[in-house]
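Page 37, continued from 36.
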């Protein structure tokens, strides 16, 4: 199996500001994060025959990189998440209940402004 990754570069002068506030990942959110993460990537992993389809199943898998994961929450419910590693954005996910409302764009903008 061949997986191709593409690199995108932002070439405009100014990056639009995001109107959201993200918080650092905390272990107390792991179960909810795991469910959203697996839901977001399940179909892709299934289509590409990447096993297991539900990849995330243990906090140890995110413990080391959790300082780079940021959450958009409402109360205690995760709306979405973004991981920022230096100048790379990874694992941008939006809870299925909140998709198609512009949260993905706002998370992307937030990440670009916090790199």
């Amino acid at each position: 199996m061949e997986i191709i990754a593409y690199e995108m570069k932002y070439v405009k002068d100014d990056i639009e500001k995001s109107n959201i506030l993200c918080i650092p990942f905390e272990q107390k959110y792991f179960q909810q994060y795991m469910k959203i993460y697996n839901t977001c990537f399940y179909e892709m992993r299934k289509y590409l025959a990447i096993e297991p389809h539900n990849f995330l199943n243990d906090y140890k898998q995110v413990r080391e990189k959790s300082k780079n994961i940021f959450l958009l929450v409402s109360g205690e419910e995760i709306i979405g998440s973004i991981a920022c590693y230096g100048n790379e954005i990874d694992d941008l996910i939006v809870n299925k209940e909140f998709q198609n409302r512009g949260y993905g764009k706002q998370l992307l903008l937030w990440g670009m402004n916090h790199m």
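The two ends are 32 Å apart (CA to CA). Flag for discussion at group meeting. The first strand starts at residue 23 and ends at 24.
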